[in-house]
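Batch manifest, entry 17 of 40.
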Amino acid sequence: STRGCGAERAPGAVACRAVRGILPLLVLLGLALSVAAGPAAAAEVRKPRAGTTYTGSPGKVELTVGTSGLDLVAFSVRCGTTTARAALNGVALKRTRRGYALAFRGRAGFTYADDEDGANGSVTLTGRFSTTAKSARGTVRVRVARCGTRTLRWTARQVR
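Output type: C-alpha cells
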C-alpha cells in the first residue's frame, strides 16, 4: 500500500514504499532479538553477604550486613560546632531489580562529640546497594532538637 507516501510519482514515493515493506520485518527481527537476549542481558542482582562491612562518607557512614538485613547502620551529622552520631539496628533489606534497598523511619538516640548529654531524634533512612553489592548510596534525614533538621546524601563502599 502506498497510503501516506504521497503522490505516486513524487520523488520520495518509491523510497517510502520500500521502507514500508521492510519495516514490519525489522520490527519482528528486533522483537526476536530482545526475547532471545532478555534473560541473559538482565543484570543479576547480588545480595550483600552477611559479615560484610561498608564504610563511606560524608558523616563516617558504616553499614554492617547480617543474616537477615543490616545489623548496624551508623552515621554522623554536623551539628553546629560539633557532630551528632547515631546507630540503627535491624534495618531490613528488600530485593529490587536495581539492587537491594534499605529503608528505616523511626527514632534513634544521638550522642554528641562535645560530650553534652545525648538526645533522641527522628531518622528517615533510605538507600540501595548496587546490583553487584560492592557499594551502596542513599540519604538520611535527621531531626534533633539541638541540630534542627539535616539531610545527608551518603555513599559507602565494601571494605571486607
